[in-house]
Structures are given as structure tokens and as C-alpha cells.
Design brief:
Radius of gyration: 19 Å
Structural class: mainly beta
Shape: globular
Number of domains: 1
Number of helices: 1
CATH topology: Porin
Strand content: over 45%
Number of strands: 12
CATH architecture: Beta Barrel
Helix content: under 10%
CATH superfamily: monomeric porin ompg
Length: 240
């Protein structure tokens, strides 16, 4: 192994393999008829501005969850492209896999892996992997805590970072709010805050209209990049 980070990634990958083996063999791959729920959402949003500034923005994502007994698997991917005055100023790709094991009605354990590329924030590639636990106080209100290990290449420089991730989440009716606070465990001045508030209004049994506000803060971004981003987005969501 090249360094401590490589060793951690290797161990966490082994955890993922064990998780899948447990799911496929101990739970029984032949019992697929006992699947409790499939839940998939396709989201698409587009905005167009003309006048002093000509701007186009396109957003798309897929979020698939598979619930089997006390196991939940989630696969998420998104793409965001934008142009202003015919000049590309946003190109972001994200992907994430998460496995959640419910111990009881209140507590669950989870592991996750993800990847991100954001050309205009000078993030060539960012891999992260980690694990944690979630506690549900009441239906719609939960708190998660996790440790994640991050490998990032930005401006031809490589960073290996260990972060804590604290995530309160509130969902009430058509409204939901999620907040992530992710400090570097070694350098306390290095932290990220992501806040997402959204309202999802059903139009039909399968189609919904979603309005979302996103706020992102990076205390130590790459040189020339602003610390704060805020975005408002309206999109259509097709669920099945």
C-alpha cells in the first residue's frame, strides 16, 4: 500500500464485498419475490435566461432505492451543465452508492462510496468512502454521524483527507431540509457545509414538481474559487 489512505480504502472495499455476499447468500438470492420495495426517481430541470445575460442550465439525476427486509441499497447519479453568454461555466458530475442496515426502528448502520467531478471548481476528481450510524428521533426527523476518507485531485495536486460528517434531516409533508457539516479532523479551519431545502408537490401519482434551494460553503476552496454557492432550481420528478 502507498499510504494510510490506500489501506483504509482497501479495508472499506472489503466491507462492501462482505455486505454484498451477506445480502446475496445469507439472505438468499432465491427469495427475490420477497422484495419489499423498489423506488426510483428521475429528475430533470432546465432554466433559460435572455437579456443582459444569456444563460442556460440543465440538470438531471437518477435516484434508485431497493428495500429488502432490513436492508436498503441506494444508487444515485447526477449531472449539471450550464452556459452563460455561450461560455460553459458549469460541468459537474456526481455518483454515490449507499448501503443501510436497520438494527431497529431507531438505529441503522450505513456504508457509502462516492465520486465527484467539478471542472469549474477545479476538482479534477474526488473519491470518498466511509461509514456511520443514523438515529431516528421521530418519523421525519433523524441525525447521522459518519467518518469519511477523501481522495481528491485538484489543480494537479493530490489531497488525502479524513472528515467527520454530521447530518441532521427533517422531512414534514411536502417539505424537507438536509444539512451536512463536514470538518477535516486534522485541520479544523477546513470544513464544508451543504444545506438543501426542497418542496416536492405531487402532480399525478407518478409526477411531481420540485423546487429546491441549495447552499454550499467550502472554507478552503481552490485558489480563485468563491467560498459560497447558492442555487435555486425547479424540476420535474418522475417516480416509479
Amino acid at each position: 500500500m502507498k499510504n494510510k489512505f490506500d489501506y483504509i480504502i482497501f479495508c472499506l472495499n472489503i466491507m462492501f464485498i462482505i455486505t454484498f455476499l451477506y445480502f446475496l447468500f445469507l439472505e438468499g438470492i432465491g427469495h427475490c419475490k420477497e422484495i419489499e420495495q423498489w423506488d426510483t426517481e428521475l429528475e430533470a430541470g432546465y432554466s433559460l435566461s435572455k437579456g443582459n445575460t444569456d444563460k442556460e442550465e440543465l440538470y438531471g439525476s437518477i435516484d434508485t432505492k431497493y428495500l429488502y427486509k432490513t436492508h436498503e441499497f441506494q444508487l444515485f447519479g447526477s449531472i449539471r451543465l450550464a452556459e452563460s453568454n455561450s461560455i460553459r461555466n458549469e460541468e459537474t458530475y456526481t455518483g454515490k452508492f449507499k448501503y443501510d442496515k436497520a438494527l431497529n426502528d431507531k438505529v441503522s448502520l450505513f456504508v457509502f462510496k462516492g465520486i465527484e467531478r467539478n471542472k469549474f471548481k477545479k476538482i479534477n476528481i474526488r473519491y470518498y468512502t466511509g461509514s456511520g450510524t443514523k438515529y431516528t428521533f421521530i418519523e421525519g426527523l433523524s441525525l447521522s454521524g459518519a467518518v469519511l476518507y477523501e481522495h481528491e485531485r485538484a489543480n494537479s495536486i493530490t489531497y488525502d483527507i479524513t472528515r467527520l460528517s454530521i447530518r441532521p434531516k427533517l422531512k414534514y409533508g411536502v417539505f424537507s431540509f438536509t444539512l451536512f457539516y463536514q470538518p477535516n479532523v486534522v485541520e479544523y479551519k477546513d470544513y464544508r457545509i451543504d444545506g438543501i431545502a426542497e418542496v416536492k408537490l405531487p402532480v399525478t401519482d407518478h409526477l411531481s414538481l420540485k423546487t429546491k434551494c441549495e447552499y454550499r460553503h467550502d472554507s478552503m476552496p481552490e485558489y480563485g474559487i468563491e467560498r459560497d454557492d447558492m442555487r435555486f432550481l425547479t424540476s420535474l420528478v418522475w417516480g416509479f
